[in-house]
Amino acid sequence: MSDDGYGELAELYPLVKDRKFEGETEGFKRAKAAGKRFREEFTKLGKLKYERVLGFGGFGMVQLWSLLDDDGRATGRSVAVKLPTRGGSRKHADTTRWEMHYMGLVFRNLDHFVQLVDVEKNTPEAQRLTNNNAVAQPVLVMEALQKCNLFELISWINESREAYVQVQDEGRMDFPFFMNCKLGYVPNRVMWKFFWCLLKGVVGMAYPNEGNAGLPSVDGTSVREMIPPEDPDRTRPEPSTIIHFDLDPQNVLVGDLDISEHRHIPKLKARSLLVADFGLTLRWRNRWNDHIKTSRIERGKPTWYAPEQRNPMRATDPHYHIGWELNVWAIGLTMFNLLTLSHPVPNEDWFPQPRVVQSPRGDIVVETYGWFLIQPPPPNPAMAPDPTIYMERYDFTLRSLIARCMADDTNDRPDFHEIWTACMLGIAETDTRKNFNQENAALLSVGGDHYDPMIVPEVESDEIVHKFYQDYFVNPPARADPYAGRWSDQ
User: 306: closest CA among 277, 276, 336, 338?
Assistant: First the structure.
C-alpha cells in the first residue's frame, strides 16, 4: 500500500479494437456452418438478400442482409440477423428470448434503442423463422446500424493519434498530412450531445414504453424518452428497476446523423446513439433473498463493473440502491472512455478517490472512480497525477458530471433530471461559445494559426465539429474483417 492508503493505482490504457486473424478456430467453423444453413433458410423468405458477416462469437453471429419489397426489389434498408451457432445451448437461447422480450415489447419504438424488424408480417406466429421466442433456437432480426459502435469510434481515434505520433517521430510531418489527418479527440460540443443521447437511453429503461404487444414494423412510429413531470406535490413516478448490465461502448451504436456537405454544424438526429444488446438485461427485485442478489448483481464485463458489482455484498445492504444508479454508472464510464479514449487497467488496482465536484448543492467532495478527470483536492497532491492538458481542455462541468456518475456510493450519483439539465446547458453553452470569441475560434479552427488536430481547442468552431463528423462518420476508416474471404463457400 502507498502512503495515501489507496495502494497501487490503476493506469489508463488506450482502447483499441483487436483485428487480428486468430485462425480457423472451432468457433469460426461453427459460425461458418450455421451461417450457411440460415442463409439458405432466410433466402427462401423472399424478403432478404444476404450481404456479409458483421461479427461472431462463441455462441452466435450477426449477418447483414438487405431488405427487399414484395416484388423482390431493394428497398435501400438493411437488417442485422443475430443467429445461434451452437445449436444445443439452452443458455444462449434463453438470453436471446430475453433480448427479444425487451426489444420487442418493453423498449418497443423508443428512439434510443435498437429495434426489432418484422420481415414475416403475414406469417402465422407458429411458422415464423425470426423473432419467434417459441422456437428452440430463436433468431433476432433487427435494425442494422452500419456506422460503428462507440468502441470502434474510440479505437479509430486512437489509431489516428498513433499514426500522427509516428509520422511526427519519423520527421515526415508536412502541411498536407497535418491538415488532412483525422482529429485525435471527440470535440467538447459532441461530447455533450453524446451524453444527452446516452441519458435518453437510461431514461427509457427507467420509464419504458411497455404494454404495446406485437412486433414493431420497419416504419413504426418512434417514441421519445422523457422524464415524467412532477406531481403537484413535486414528486415523480418511481422509475423501473430495469438494469442493462452490459451497457458499455461496445453496445452503443451510432445511428442517424444529419451531416450536410455544406460547411455548417452537423446535427444529431433523435436517434443518433442507440443502446443495443439486451441479453443480460433484467428487472431487479428487492424481494429476492441475499443469495440471489449477490449472484445476479455480477453480470456483464468485469472490467466495466460498477462498485456495487465489484463488491456484491452491497446488493444486500439497504444503504445502496440497486436500480437506475447502475445504468447511470454505465453511461458515466462510457463517457469517461470517450473523453480519455482509454480504460483503467488493471481492474483490481482501480480504487475510488476523493474529488471536489459540482452539484446543485454547490461544490462537494465525492469518492469517485473517475478521479483521473479532476485535480486532487489540497492538501493531498500525491494522491494521483493531475489530468493531462488533453483532458483539461474539456469543460470542467462535463468532467465533474462524469466523475459524479462514477461515484463509489450510489447515493452520490446524479439523478436523471440533473444530468438532463446539465446536458442542455452544456450543449447550449458550447454551441454558442464561439459567438463570443470568434477570433480565438478562428485561430484554433482547421487551418488557423493555432490549430492542433490532437488537442481539444478552448473554443470549438463549427468547422472543427464538421471535420469530426466527416472524419469518422462520412469517410470513416475501413472496418477490416480479419475473416474476409473465408466465408465465401457459405
Answer: 336
Which CATH number is 207's domain given? 1.10.510.10
Is residue 123 located within the same domain as residue 242?
A: no
Phi/psi for 386 (5° steps) reads -65, 160
Calpha distance 79→255 (Å, rounded): 13
Model confidence pLDDT, tens digit, residues 200-237:
999 999 999 875 444 444 446 788 899 988 887 777 88
Write out pLDDT tens, residues 465-478. 999 999 999 888 87
The proportion of the chain whose per-residue pLDDT surpasses 90, expressed as a percent, equals 51
Residue 446 backbone class (left: φ over 0; alpha: ψ -120 to 50; beta: rest) = beta
Lowest mean pLDDT: which of 34-48, 86-100, 216-230? 216-230
For residue 364, give Cα distances in angstroms to 185, 336, 344, 352, 412: 29, 20, 24, 15, 10
Q: Domain containing 362: what range? A: 1-13+146-483
- Does residue 5 register a pLDDT over 50? no
CA 279/CA 82 separation, integer angstroms: 12
DSSP-derived secondary structure for 144-167: ---S-BHHHHHHHHHHHHHHHHHH
For the chain, the 3-state helix, strand and coil shares in percent, each to the nearest 5, are 40, 15, 45
Residues linked to residue 242 through DSSP beta bridges, in sequence order: 283
Predicted TM-score of the model (pTM): 0.91
Please give the Cα distance from 488 to 490 (Å, whole number).
5
